[in-house]
Specification:
By secondary structure, the chain is an alpha/beta fold. It has a single domain, classed as Rossmann fold (3-Layer(aba) Sandwich), CATH 3.40.50.720. The protein is built from twelve helices and eight strands. The protein has an eight-stranded mixed β-sheet, with helices on both faces. Strand 1, helix 2 and strand 2 form a beta-alpha-beta unit. Helix 5 packs parallel to helix 7. The longest helix has 22 residues. The chain is globular. The termini are far apart.
Length: about 325
Amino acid sequence: MRHNNYRLTADEIAERYNTDLSNQIVLITGGSGTVGYATMESLLKRGATIINVGRSAKTLKQVEDKLHNDYAHLSDIQNRVYSVVMELESFSSVKEGAEQIKRLIKQLDLPLKIIIANSGIMAINYRQTRDGMDPQWQVNYFSHYYLITLLHTELKAAAPSRVVLVSSSYHALLHTGGALHIQYDKLPYPPEKGYQRFQPYQQSKLALVMIANELNDRYSNDGITVLSCNPGGIVSNLQIESGSQAMMRWTNRMWKTPAQGASTQVYCALAPQREIVGGQYYDNCEVWSSQHFQELGQGVSKDERVKLYEYTQGFLSKYGAN
């Protein structure tokens, strides 16, 4: 049975709160994709200045031009959409991109109020990134973590500010080698023999849920709230390599539209602080359960979340990413 909020759109959520984002920066990774684009549209209508982060300069320019054209009726639209090229499969690219973002924030002289870590890849065939990592782990988890830590000073200066980590309902599923605990023996990449494409996806999305809780504990005194969320099932480019896109199109009525998929991350970005439970996981615009971590079991206990934090910090330092 579907939740009452299942068909809510991002615009309906934004209109519910009528939050004014004028003269505030929202940074989103993967804004050129289906759900990311719907998220940007909704936040632009609330007055936000958008920084769209993606790996293709050509695609970023096309998206920028489309937004300028579609929202030409907004008199200041030409000064509210910016792009930064960043390859999330490369820690050096993340660092270079973060430095560019810092310069842009200084140039605009506006606060970085919201980061939406939206970009992700799913169930791809076996390969390694230029840093020698599993791409799903690096793109979905490690590079987003690294980007957030690099921009911590800017988030703190803009407090109260918010970070939204886009996870997936897959994080809680036991399937194809997945587990409700982080399998450190399969990092930085699983063995090629017997490689199960969904395993790193489930693991990286579980890590996002866990680290949102841990970072919220560590950042809350700086006025930074960190949340994780599930956009839901949406037909998008995410499923291309996994082979599930055709099936999803065939059963299209079962799935959310991009605007509906964007609703929960827009909710996490805009809902008033009194309504938000920091560190928690949201689905269909509501906190899934205040007991979520207890329900998932010992594998995501506080001790395990601290272990993940310390592992991540140590891992990134080995790559010079600190």
